Amino acid sequence: MTTCASGNSCTVKKLSSIQSVAACPGFNVQLTLYTNRHQLEVTCSDKPNFELLRNLPNLQSFAFKELAYQDCPLPVGNQSLVELLSVFLNLTELSSIQRLFFVDNAKFSDQISLDPQLFASLPKLQVLSMKNSSRMPLDNPQLFKHLPSLTWLDLRQGDGDSRTNKALLHPLSQLITLELMENDLTTLSAEFVSDLPSLESLTLYHNQLEHIEQFAELPSLTSLDLTYNQLMTLREDVFDRLPSLANLYLEWNMFTGLPTGLFKHNSKLTVFHADNQHSSGLVLGDKLFAGLTMLQNVSVSNCKITMLPEGLFIGATKLSKVDLSGNLLQSVPENLFRDSPNLKELNLQNNELLKMLPDTLLRGTTQLRILILGPNQTNNHINNND
Q1: What does the longest C-alpha to C-alpha distance in the chain come to?
Q2: Has residue 97 been placed in a domain?
Q3: What's the pLDDT score for residue 376?
Q4: CB-based contacts of 197: which residues, under 8 Å, 6+ apart?
């Protein structure tokens, strides 16, 4: 069926009960409903004039709880997304969405600063993804002021922090999950990730981070992912104001050393992974994990480690899994696991161990079930019940 609007004609083609295409001069808009998650996907073939879809007969009406807005331009100035799309979508449905996914919107959008009005009339929004859309300037500190209920924010694949206001996230007091991966960040200022009392998970993998300031007070943060960056060192107080930190991921960086007092204020640390460091060799500070009574899993494989300090795990009584494989160890301190009665798995394969391991190394580790030693220069059996 063909209808006319403002002197132009648009046609609606119903592809199925869950999919329609509105074809107008110069652009198409496809509507697809994913019933299993109540998501409506709006996809543009070119820069559209949504006014041509106003009161368009036969355009299906969908009930949805989340919206994916793909390859379409973002509204600018004083126009909100709800206002922009309400010419052809139900206003009540739009205002009630809980999850919003912007996908590759930069292509047809004007490269100007986004305005807070963009998110007006979305009081129930909890999840917001701006994948690749964040290549547009995010320099308005009040951009998210209309999103008091937001708990999850994805700003991946942006252009780094060159045009991002350092106070951008401050209105999001309920934010729990923040994803900043693949943004070409070279530094991370403490101010940017601050005033977020509810934040539990921060993901920064696949950036170009070379330096990190001491994190601001983040009392609820439990998980921090810094994998695939270019970090060589960390200041000793970098994690001091993260009292709830439980899971730390530092894989695929360039670390040459981790200082002794790095975790002195992180008593809840449970999982530490720092495998595959691209450096001349990683040096672990003496007593790096000492006193961490919640620590269970440590993995530092393929880091060119040549020696381990004997006090590395003093007081880490819940330690259950340690992976030291793929390093350059020629020996292991005889009392390394003297405070580890719950150790269940130890991997020492692919090192350069030249002699029998000390008989006392695993004394008291009565829970040990998996011990991987080969290949090394010597393969040896240890009786941990001595």
Answers
A1: 91
A2: yes
A3: 84
A4: 173, 218, 219, 220
Q: Is residue 188 part of a domain?
A: no
Q: How far apart are the first and last CA of the chain?
A: 85
Report the amino acid identity of residue 60. Answer: Q
Asked whether residue 363 falls in the same domain as residue 248, the answer is yes
Both 300 and 166 in one domain: the answer is: no
Q: What is the pLDDT of residues 75-105, one digit of tens each?
A: 877 899 999 999 999 999 999 999 999 988 8
Distance between CA 357 and CA 330 in Å, rounded? 10
Segment 230-282, tens digit of pLDDT:
999 999 999 999 999 999 999 999 999 999 999 999 999 999 999 999 999 99
82 φ/ψ angles, rounded to the nearest 5 degrees: -60, -45
DSSP 314-334: TT-TT--EEE-TTS--S---T
Q: What is the distance between the alpha carbons of residues 172 and 197, in angstroms, rounded to a whole number? A: 9
319-370, pLDDT tens digit by residue?
999 999 999 999 999 999 999 999 999 999 999 998 888 989 999 899 999 9
Token representation of residue 157: 């694949």
Residue 2, pLDDT > 80, answer no
160 and 34 inside one domain: yes
In this prediction, residue 146 has a pLDDT band, given cuts at 50, 70 and 90, of: very high
CA–CA–CA angle 323, 329, 332 (5° rounding):
80
CATH number where 135 lies: 3.80.10.10
Q: Look up the domain containing 243 and give its range.
A: 231-379
What is the rounded distance in angstroms from the CA atom of residue 362 to the CA atom of residue 336? 8
**Which of 134, 151, 175 delimits the end of a domain?**
175
Q: Supply φ then ψ for residue 3, to 5 degrees.
A: -125, 160
Do 134 and 244 reside in the same domain of the chain? no
Q: Count up the domains in the chain and report the number.
A: 2
Report the pLDDT value the prediction gives residue 68, as an integer from 0 to 100.
Answer: 96
Q: Give the separation between CA 100 and CA 344, rounded to whole angstroms.
A: 44
